[in-house]
Design goal:
The protein is an alpha/beta fold and 347 residues long. Helices cover 27% and strands 24% of the residues. The protein has helices spanning 2-5, 68-75, 101-114, 133-146, 158-161, 176-190, 223-236, 276-288, 329-337; strands spanning 8-12, 16-19, 24-26, 48-55, 60-66, 82-88, 117-122, 164-174, 200-206, 262-270, 294-300, 318-320, 323-327. The strands form 3 sheets. It has an 8-stranded mixed β-sheet with strand order 4-5-7-6-8-9-10-11, with helices on both faces. Strands 1-2-3 form a 3-stranded antiparallel β-sheet, with helices on one face. Strands 12-13 form a two-stranded antiparallel sheet. The chain starts with a helix and ends in a 10-residue tail after the last helix.
Length: 347
């Protein structure tokens, strides 16, 4: 009987296998790897990090990052406020973790170079916790983070209350994490009272995981692959009633798309990424939606999905209008975080 119960229930390739006894096996390089906070693979980074539990009942947690400039300010007995980046990791809603060495290294690098305070959210994953659990976790985390803007709240995390500038809150993520960042910005625009009346400054969507029933662009060239990606959403969000046209995965179907609760949006796509056309479609649809903010899109030439996790400073990256020299994705993100920069959003 044990052999029968431990047999294969289904596969979601290339990510995982689920067995009849409930065991989930994540495959190949999607296997779980964890590193503790404050691990400096590059000693020049000088970024401090720590893990915090947000909701003990569910295990919702996050990894917080502080750049060196904060430590220096504290030594000078100064309180320095920096932009707050709330980051959601990718992994098809079912793999990876904020504790994964790729994401830990990337956040270390980004925090050091952009000089921001960052919170990387450790939401619960499918299939053990099917969507919309990850969205609910992410919303709970965002509300917890922004509650630190209130002076009368007890039990504050001082890294946030002392050092985060709540007038410059940026949501960001890659792949499925970018999908989550978008959906959190929609909620923030629809229910601002739940985030204490704050308005998000911006959202950064890197290689966002959006999809739809009707194939577009390169999706039409490989319908077998299209069907496999179709299956992914139905597996991680089994309660969906609209399939791959659910507004959570296809924002173009969302009647509240124009309610995106931020002033600026940056969409980053990669030339060789299957999701490239969805990123462009998002950009074009948002521009026409009646949203009152400003959106820009940047395309990385010759690169594939989430290449930045493996080579964050790749110069085989972005070309901007009027600028013949390629610019790294990291450089574009730094410009986005810098309010004084006129490099982006000049229109």
């Amino acid at each position: 009987m044990e052999a029968i119960n431990s047999g294969l229930a289904y596969e979601l390739l290339p990510y995982l296998r689920v067995y009849k006894n409930g065991r989930v096996e994540r495959l190949s390089h999607y296997r779980d790897e964890f590193v503790p906070p404050s691990i400096f693979r590059d000693l020049k980074m000088s970024v401090s990090s720590k893990d915090v539990v947000i909701v003990p009942q569910t295990g919702l947690s996050a990894r917080l990052y502080l750049p060196k400039s904060i430590t220096h300010a504290e030594e000078q007995q100064q309180k320095k406020k920096l932009p707050l980046l709330v980051y959601f990791h990718g992994g098809a809603f079912c793999t990876y973790s904020t504790l994964n060495p790729r994401y830990h290294d990337y956040l270390n690098s980004l925090v050091a170079e952009a000089n921001v305070v960052a919170v990387s959210v450790e939401y619960r994953r499918a299939p053990e916790n099917p969507l919309p659990v990850a969205y609910e976790d992410s919303w709970a985390a965002l509300k917890w983070e922004l509650s630190h803007s209130l002076s009368d709240q007890q039990g504050h995390e001082i890294w946030l209350s002392d050092h985060a500038d709540f007038n410059q809150v940026i949501l960001g993520g890659d792949s499925s994490g970018a999908n989550i960042a978008h959906n959190m910005a929609i909620r923030a625009g629809i229910t601002p009272e739940q985030i204490f009346g704050l308005k998000l400054w911006g959202v950064v969507l890197v290689h966002p995981h959006f999809w739809g029933m009707e194939p577009i662009g390169v999706e039409k060239l490989d319908m077998d692959l299209k069907q496999r990606v179709d299956k992914l959403w139905l597996t991680v969000c089994p309660t969906t009633t609209a399939g791959n046209d659910d507004p959570l995965i296809n924002p173009a179907t969302d009647p509240k798309f124009s309610s995106l609760g931020c002033n600026k949006a940056l969409v980053c796509v990669a030339e060789k990424d299957l999701l490239r056309d969805r990123g462009w479609f998002y950009y074009e649809t948002l521009k026409k939606s009646g949203w009152e903010g400003v959106v820009e899109i940047m395309e990385s030439k010759g690169e594939g999905h989430v290449f930045h996790l493996h080579n964050p400073s790749s110069e085989n990256a972005l070309k901007l209008p009027g600028n013949e020299k390629p610019i790294s994705l990291m450089s574009i993100l730094l410009c986005f975080f810098d309010k004084s920069s006129s490099f982006l959003f000049t229109s």
